[in-house]
């Protein structure tokens, strides 16, 4: 009968674990900083686009009202 090989369990060094945690933490902090900068850039672009869209909507609404008024005036003054 063959015996199952057993792994030798050695206690891990707390220093190695601590360094590993520090590296992971630093990596995540760097990633967070990078993502925040990216979000900041996109938000400024989004704000510009949103305000441009608002201006266009306002201009279109104004022009539609003016066209309606002119059409209404024309239909009232036009002989039938």
Can you describe what's shown?
With 80 residues, the chain is an all-alpha fold. 80% of the residues lie in helices and 0% in strands. It contains one helix and no strands. The termini are far apart. The model has no long low-confidence stretch (mean pLDDT 90).
Main traits of this protein?
single chain, 80 residues, mainly alpha, 1 helix
User: Structural class of the secondary structure composition?
Assistant: mainly alpha
Question: Helicity level, as a percent range?
Answer: over 70%
Write down the Rg. 34 Å
**Low-confidence runs:** none
Mean pLDDT: 90
Question: What's the quick description here?
Answer:
The chain has 80 residues and is mostly helical.
Element layout with pairings:
Blueprint: H1 14-77
